[in-house]
Amino acid sequence: xxxxxxxxxxxxxxxxxxxxxxxxxxxxxxxxxxxxxxxxxxxxxxxxxxxxxxxxxxxxxxxxxxxxxxxxxxxxxxxxxxxxxxxxxxxxxxxxxxxxxxxxxxxxxxxxxxxxxxxxxxxxxxxxxxxxxxxxxxxxxxxxxxxxxxxxxxxxxxxxxxxxxxxxxxxxxxxxxxxxxxxxxxxxxxxxxxxxxxxxxxxxxxxxxxxxxxxxxxxxxxxxxxxxxxxxxxxxxxxxxxxxxxxxxxxxxxxxxxxxxxxxxxxxxxxxxxxxxxxxxxxxxxxxxxxx
Length: 292
Ligand code: AAT
Hints:
The protein is an alpha/beta fold. The protein has ten helices and eleven strands. The protein has helices at about 1-5, 60-75, 90-95, 110-120, 125, 140-145, 175-180, 200-215, 270-275, 285-290, and strands spanning about 20-30, 35-40, 45-50, 55, 80-85, 105-110, 135-140, 155-160, 185-190, 220-225, 230-240. Strands 7-6-5-8-9-11-10 form a seven-stranded mixed β-sheet, with helices on both faces. A four-stranded antiparallel β-sheet has the order 1-2-3-4, covered by helices on one side. Strand 3 and strand 4 form a beta hairpin. Helix 7 crosses helix 8. The radius of gyration is 18 Å and the shape is globular. About 45% of the residues are buried. Bound molecules: S-adenosyl-1,8-diamino-3-thiooctane (AAT). S-adenosyl-1,8-diamino-3-thiooctane binds near residues 87, 109, 142 and 160.
């Protein structure tokens, strides 16, 4: 009975739960920061779970990783310097490296165990680490960004876990201030922004903070990811003051990028139509969050 109660007790989605059939547990260990679990599922391939929350499955990771990387990178001309926060599985790196204009990719992941586990069980994602443009920093992104040189990055992608545990500070104003500082004028942020069905208030809070920090250019996009709670995930896109950024109509379309489709593997989810469509918001969300 108490196990059942705990099952419905996640503070991010109280009163509901989502099941994926476990075929075999492949790895289960406590790291310094969280419980890391990998299992083989019946339908979704291998699944990575941190502290009981699904982070990715082999079947649908393409939707999240492709969107979180290409929404920002296709919105600016010739991105060169990119920072990935979190993302220790390497999937976002794999996507960023499709962009041949990119010269330098920093990644700051807090948990070495996530990186090691991905190298062992998710080679199609960990392949992202093999690109020579990638520079790995293992540590807390809050500290990393405090020390980042001003104006260094064209784009910052925050691929972080939910704000319970090590990612708590990643939704607070001081963190967004350091991000804005680390971006060049007209640089872009794409931040994982939860589910519009479950977290309207959290989304509203993040939008308010970002509107203050980024002085205006703040947009919300979303995509379908069946194994995330409620089956969707959102992205907050912000630009610093400077050359204006039109997030909705990609200026740097993936279809025109040489080699973007031959690189490692074909895109499965993202294209320019999906990019623009992702910014269309349901009526209730438009009412409840103030994007204007
Ligand atoms: N690409 C897979 C999706 C993720 S992984 C999120 C990563 O963020 C984890 O590897 C976690 O260790 C890392 N992380 C958490 N806090 C920090 C921090 N403070 N600094 C650096 N890295 C951190 C996200 C899935 C989203 C799920 C939505 N429900």
